[in-house]
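Exercise 7. Given the encoded structure of a 167-residue chain, write a plausible sequence.
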């Protein structure tokens, strides 16, 4: 789903549900704290791993930041709409938020899929550094945060997100 559509949904939600904005901000702050710690874990290993990867995540998925409604709404509680951060890549496959030195979105507030997805090499590096258990705990905490935001956004979530909740 494109950022433009997500921004429209966010603005519409703000108008219809001002009573939820405080709770969304709290969830955004919690999410940011968890993601900051994940970023610290990843920054210790991903520069070497991702630069050497022939199929790195950010270069092989034609996505607009992998944002779902819940990811985007949390992002917007702490940041302006990221329209000016987008860039076009000639390969047509890279994330629009991939810059010359990596992701241009704030490290403490990226979409959950970008933060939670990791490959076998990342998992092995985390395990070798003795950090896999910590990452797993943070991963689980992000899942619990997602579960708290979904009821607040029930009428605004895409059908695929609603289906994922049933699993």
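Solution.
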């Amino acid at each position: 789903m494109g950022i433009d559509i997500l921004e429209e949904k966010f603005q519409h939600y703000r108008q219809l549900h001002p009573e939820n904005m405080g709770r969304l901000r709290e969830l955004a702050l919690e999410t940011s704290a968890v993601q900051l710690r994940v970023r610290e874990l990843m920054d210790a290993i991903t520069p070497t791993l991702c630069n050497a990867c022939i199929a790195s995540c950010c270069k092989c998925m034609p996505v607009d930041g992998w944002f779902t409604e819940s990811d985007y709404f949390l992002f917007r509680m702490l940041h302006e709409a990221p329209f000016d951060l987008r860039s076009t890549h000639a390969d047509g496959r890279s994330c629009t938020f991939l810059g010359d030195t990596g992701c241009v979105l704030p490290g403490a507030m990226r979409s959950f899929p970008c933060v939670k997805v990791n490959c076998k090499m990342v998992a092995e590096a985390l395990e070798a550094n003795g950090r896999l258990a910590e990452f797993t705990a943070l991963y689980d905490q992000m899942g619990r945060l997602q579960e708290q935001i979904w009821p607040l956004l029930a009428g605004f979530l895409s059908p695929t997100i609603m289906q994922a909740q049933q699993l």
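Remark. Residues 61 and 93 are 5 Å apart (CA to CA). Students should compare their own answers with the one above.
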